[in-house]
Amino acid sequence: MEVEELAEYVLVEAPDYISDLPDECLACIFQSLSSRNRKHCSLVCRRWLRVEGQSRQRLSLNAHSDLLPLVTSLFSRFDALTKLCLKCDRRSVSIGDEALVAISIRCRNLTRIKLRACRELTDSGMAAFAKNCKALKKLSCGSCTFGAKGMNAILDNCPSLEYLWVKRLQGIANAATAEPIGPGLAASSLKTICLEELHNGQCFGPLIIGSKNLKSLKLSRCSGDWDKLLQVIADRVTGLAEIHLERLQVSDTGLVAISNCLNRYFPSRQNPGVY
Amino acid sequence: MSSSTDSPTLTTETTQLSPQPDTETAKPTKKITLKSSDNQIFEVEESVAMEFATVKSFFEDSPSTDTVPLPNVTAKPLSQVIEFCKEQIKFKANPDEAQKKKYNAEFVTEKSDKDLVDMIPVANYLEIKDLLDVLNQAVADRIENKSVEYVRSFFGIDNDFTAEEEAALRREHAWAYEGVDED
């Protein structure tokens, strides 16, 4: 009843005054809306769809394998994205290299990418992505299965990378086959490195040691002995302002090395490991 | 009102009126004339007009002009924009963030949907960034958490999608996550 009344009122009274609004004004209104509300607005009419798509910088997508056929239409609509999140749930088959490469071709200005449980992505997909998205500043990947080659491709191709967050990267878990990671071009730009729940995370050693401008290092629940690496890090990475060690196997040797660096800030030190 | 020429009230009024601005502000304030597209004349103080970046640069280019034509702006939204800018100047002289916030909120609350939307292109054309931010947020607030149908009827926009196109778009939207990863 209320809806009917409203519709009638609108039909009689409301002129279409927003059509006179320039595109850039409409885009500014969209910028003040939440992601969900932007979605509603894009369905209002063709013009709003176009303006919303062109003015959107951030997108989060369900990275299920069935996304592939939609990549072309979705990413030609959103052609100004700078931040993208591809997130698959654990029980589903994720997008593969083909989809990631197709996305990277259409999103060459990406500065941030977040990958979650995209288990079908391989080193070669990551390498192609890295070549197309060289402006990347922030990479965050959790529960992915690609390995050192893919990670190195990112580090070699993205000279502006400032932030790297890696959690449960299964492709490096085998110490016998894993290659060292880094330093690559990104080593000079990286400011923050966070490694969580990695097996054989020590293969990031060359990257950490080579990152001369590193300000913050977080190592959490990464298995294996970190003493040796911490000694070298304390020695070589002189600008570190923050080191966060959590549930890590570190002995006095490693801690002494780190504590010898002045002006360090320890937000937390929980080391139930070997002392 | 009598039309007699020697009305005592009139003479006292004029003598009272003229010294008042002089005592309040030491120097006489310069007025600038703005002309809307529907040929209405607005006399505003220079300080108010300089809030409009477009008018400001107009004067920098041709300082001798006395009337600034605003061919893209009609009288009603212009008068509201002037009202807003007058207040902002007071806040510039006496900064009070809480009062300013309160004024800005009241300014948009009392406006009709049409008035709000009509002011946006004016604020955009005159390059008044503060007002533009306030207006965009106000319009966004009015359509926040509303259905597509509501937004269409709110703005009086016709749906020009075919049923198939709309269905396809809704399928695309099913792939987008909401309310996550806003960092």
TrEMBL record, chain A:
It holds the Pfam family F-box. Residues 15-51 form the F-box domain. It comes from Salix udensis. SUPFAM superfamilies: F-box domain, RNI-like. GO terms for cellular component: SCF ubiquitin ligase complex. GO terms for biological process: SCF-dependent proteasomal ubiquitin-dependent protein catabolic process. The lineage of its organism: Eukaryota, Viridiplantae, Streptophyta, Embryophyta, Tracheophyta. InterPro entries: F-box-like_dom_sf, F-box_dom, Leu-rich_rpt_Cys-con_subtyp, LRR_dom_sf. It comes from the Eukaryota. This is F-box domain-containing protein.
From TrEMBL, chain B:
Residues 30-87 form the SKP1 component POZ domain. Residues 1-21 have a biased composition (Low complexity). GO terms for biological process: jasmonic acid mediated signaling pathway; protein ubiquitination; ubiquitin-dependent protein catabolic process. Gene3D superfamilies: Potassium Channel Kv1.1, Chain A. It is found in: Nucleus. Signal peptide: none annotated. One of its GO terms (cellular component) is nucleus. Residues 129-176 form the SKP1 component dimerisation domain. Involved in ubiquitination and subsequent proteasomal degradation of target proteins. Together with CUL1, RBX1 and a F-box protein, it forms a SCF E3 ubiquitin ligase complex. The functional specificity of this complex depends on the type of F-box protein. In the SCF complex, it serves as an adapter that links the F-box protein to CUL1. Belongs to the SKP1 family. The lineage of its organism: Eukaryota, Viridiplantae, Streptophyta, Embryophyta, Tracheophyta. This is SKP1-like protein. Part of a SCF (SKP1-cullin-F-box) protein ligase complex. Pathway: Protein modification; protein ubiquitination. Its main location: nucleus. Keywords: Ligase, Nucleus, Ubl conjugation pathway. It comes from Salix koriyanagi. Residues 1-32 are annotated as: Disordered. GO terms for molecular function: ligase activity.
